[in-house]
Design goal:
- The protein is an alpha/beta fold.
- It is 43% helix and 17% strand.
- α5 crosses α6, α8 packs across α10 and α14 packs antiparallel against α15.
- The two termini are 45 Å apart.
Length: 497
Amino acid sequence: MSKIALYIRLSVEDQIDRDESESITNQRSLLNNYLDKNAEFKGFQREEFVDDGYSGTNDKRPSFQRMLDEVKNGTIKTIIVKDLSRFMRDYIMLGDYLENIFPFMGVRFIAINDGYDSAKEKGNGTDFDIQFKGLLYDFYSKDISQKVKTVADELKKQGKFLAWSPPLGYMKDPNDKHKIIIDKETAWIVRKVYDLALEGMSSGKIAMLMNKENIPTPNKRKTELTNMDYKYNIISTEARENPTWTFGTVAHILSNENYTGTYVYNMQERSVLNSGSIKNIPKEKWGRVENHHEAIISKEDFDKVQQIKEKNRFLKGKNTDYPWRNKSPLQGFVRCPTCNHILTLTQSKHVRKNGSFKYFKYFRCRICKCNNVEHKGSKVELLEEQVLSLIKEKYREVDTNKNDAVNLKELEKRITNLQDKKMAYFEKYKLGKMTKAKFVESKSNIDEEIEKLEEKIKVSSTTQEVVKGNELTREMMEKYIDSVICENSIVQKIIWK
């Protein structure tokens, strides 16, 4: 029997207006009434997918992802929502679903309040009104982004836990989604990590022990609690199918003050519109609510661990930095031949007898190390020399045309100006100084012009195959190479773009 997916979403934005029509109860009632009134749906099985407290600006929502999994499996052939904004606020992504993904999968899509039914649309969702409405939703999201942050900050100050997933050792209270309680299944893991650190064990050795004892990772527990698929976040190897504990995982747990019962928030600033954009906030500006939830770790033990971390660089974690450290253009490109994971750049300095320093830089596989799998590190300088030589072999050495470089900058500037112009037109429309038809026409012309300019940039960049000098650069890596497979200071294979 074919199934109909009833998708319901309530976001932080909805808490601004507190419009009862947006509530889960009312969305559910609206969808079911619509199906009840249409006889063609009587033979269908109904299944609800509810995301409570998630923004519609991206598709990283647990129930949304579960629904798409069933679409891929062919068990769902119809999706119904209150309106388009419940499904997606990113108009580009929305258009992709309506125009390409759903028609290809044979899925019927219905947005009741928008009067949209893909089975009755000739353009499969790409007609004039749908495009325009999606555009409005996108701009609306931008307009309210600051309001959303303001509301969220106020709720956090009141002690409401807004993160979609608590740290390992905690779970959301089934009776109150804004409270967290101790997760009896995993709290002991957190205590074990802290006990081992208090005994003087390094983060790397703790990770190795956790893997040896096959102790579940934080991401594994998140999967169980949220039904989210973490296959891209969980690290596994051929030798170890289960998720892997790493140095960073342990260090993160050892630095999380939430384990003391204090609700710590706003440690990072995440873009409302782009969830992948994150900026660290200084510690003195973090928000705190004391005695917010039951503690797993005492404040005394937490403070002791922080003191140990200051003395032991192997416990400090990913935020540790030193002024003498340098980056390599190979970072993010070099991979392990055993597990195919991106190698970590490790750096250290040795003090000579005369007081001078000697620096060492290696690429090592933290995944293999944490799983007791042998992997010989690679000297950074030797790898850089080999990669540069291989690039020069493949691409002839030519001189850069300065005029071309100037032209490229000019093209990029024109694109920026056109994007600003499109925003200005939208503002005119909002103020009633431009008709809807005129705005859409102007936007279409601008988008066409931007597309032509982007094509010129692409062609120009392709004709400028430049390999110059005796130093490997980040620009070279991004332009020519997808990844570098290496071990023991030897490049085994290069995967070219």
